Amino acid sequence: MSTTTKRLLIGVMSVLQERDRRDAMRDTWLPEMMPAVATTRFVLGRTNASEADAEQAEQGDLVVLSCEENQHRGKTLLWFVHALRLPEDYAFVAKMDQDVLLWPAQLAHEMASWPSSGFYGGWPVDVHRQHWQNDRFAFMNGGFAVLSRDLAESVRDTVQVAAPLQTEEAKASRGPRLPAACDCSRAAPPRRSSDTYSGMAHSGL
Q1: 42 with 58: CB under 8 angstroms?
Q2: Using CB atoms within 10 A as the burial measure, which of 26, 62, 102, 144 is most buried?
Q3: What is the tens place of the pLDDT at every residue in 106-138?
Q4: Which residues contact 12 (CB under 8 A, 6 or more apart)?
Q5: What is the DSSP string of the chain?
Q6: Could you give the angle at which helices 149-162 and 75-84 cross, rounded to 10 degrees?
């Protein structure tokens, strides 16, 4: 992949009622973001359509996913699935929290050294939790975590494999499960391939 296409798609996890946070980002670091480096979208769960439509008409930077608004129950998974359905060939996809202040110039500098495959980046956190017994592992803090496209595709493929198992019968048999708010078994493609905003919105999921 050439350097001209080595672009990043950032999904800032947000909720409709916190527009003041979105506006703060629009007024601070977002204007400094170079389009050739990254595209940023604010990611919402299923919400009040009229309010979201009004903000989208004004700002053009929202994505409404077809899942219940949630923090740890599948919204991030659906964001990565959505990102790969867009016509733009992004080399990296990131998930970011809305209380993070991004430095676009530093991001552009760091991106130059990112490998185009097998890349998982962010701020590492060493975790030891009782239900993982003695296993220790590091994962990237949710404030900002980025995957190269091939790893994002692995996330998508895992969601697709698990989707047929999200029936009541499969759940009763204790097969592999996705978070309850992330029912991907009825996922639909975008209504229009160029529609970033509603790429997974209103699909009846």
Answers
A1: no
A2: 62
A3: 999 999 999 999 999 987 776 655 445 555 666
A4: 22, 25, 40, 41, 42, 43, 96, 97, 98
A5: --GGG--EEEEEE--TT-HHHHHHHHHTTGGG--TTTEEEEEEE-S--HHHHHHHHHHH--EEE-SS---SSSSHHHHHHHHHHTSSS--SEEEEEETTPPP-HHHHHHHHTT--SSS-EEEEEEEE--GGGTT--EEEEEEEEEEEEHHHHHHHHHHHHHHGGG-SHHHHHTT-----TT--GGG----SSTT-STTSSTTS--
A6: 120
Is the pTM value of this prediction over 0.85? no
Mean pLDDT of 12-29: 95
Reported as a single tens digit per residue, the pLDDT across 51-107 is: 999 999 999 999 999 877 777 677 888 899 999 999 888 999 999 999 999 999 999
Yes or no: say if 162 and 147 are a contact pair by the CB < 8 Å rule.
no
Measured between alpha carbons, how far is 52 from 64 in angstroms, rounded to an integer? 8
**Angle at 194 (CA atoms; ends 142, 180), nearest 5 degrees:** 40
Length of the chain, in residues: 205
Q: In what order do the strands lie in the sheet with 38-44?
A: 62-64, 38-44, 8-13, 92-97, 137-148, 120-127
Using CA atoms, how far apart are residues 57 and 37, in angstroms rounded to an integer?
Answer: 24
Joined together, the tokens standing for residue 7 give: 């672009």
